[in-house]
Design a protein that fits this description.
Blueprint lengths: L3 H5 L3 H11 L2 E8 L3 H7 L9 H8 L4 E7 L3 H9 L12 H5 L16 H11 L13 H4 L2
Antiparallel strand pairs: 1-2
This protein binds 2'-deoxyadenosine-5'-diphosphate and magnesium ion.
Length: 145
């Protein structure tokens, strides 16, 4: 998900472009405003954290671009491309390492590959089944041996 800071900074295209160029396939995309209830559900695992209130306020502060991507080992690969949670620790070349500076304004959300259920759970929070499109990219035989 492109978070509100990155939407405001005109970085939707940059984020999409990085994932697209890697060879990952977008199968769902939605420009939307997250409300309080959805934000609290989305970040339910962080309910007890002291930063929970700020997190909910931030993710609801403006529109986001939610996406579903497919590809080999996609959840882990996207996490690697995102970089560390704190942009100050994120390696150059990663999305957070190149596009953000502050933990509370870290540009992008991604499901957690260490929590295999987070992927499906988050997809169903933001998308109905019919909003996910199955198709072939013409370059698939050149992306995968
Ligand atoms: P990630 O977004 O990399 O999956 P996370 O799930 O641990 O990271 O935390 C969700 C968001 O909460 C994260 O993008 C930024 C914020 N956050 C995490 N740890 C924080 C902390 N110690 N202080 C303030 N905000 C924090
Ligand atoms: Mg997380």
């Amino acid at each position: 998900m492109v978070k509100p800071d990155a939407v405001q900074r005109g970085l939707i295209g940059e984020v999409v472009s990085r994932l697209e160029s890697r060879g990952l396939k977008m199968v769902g995309g939605k420009f939307m405003q997250i409300d309080q209830e959805l934000a609290e559900e989305h970040y339910a695992e962080h309910t007890d954290e002291p930063f929970f209130g700020d997190l909910v306020e931030f993710i609801t502060a403006g529109p986001v671009f939610a996406m579903v991507w497919e590809g080999a080992d996609v959840t882990r690969q996207v996490r690697e491309m995102m970089g560390a949670t704190d942009p100050a620790e994120a390696a150059p070349g990663t999305i957070r390492g190149d596009l953000a500076l502050d933990l509370g304004r870290n540009a992008i959300h991604g499901s957690d590959h260490e929590d295999p259920e987070s992927n499906e759970r988050e997809i169903s929070l933001f998308f109905d089944d019919e909003e996910l499109i199955e198709y072939e990219r013409i370059d698939e035989s050149w992306l995968y041996e």
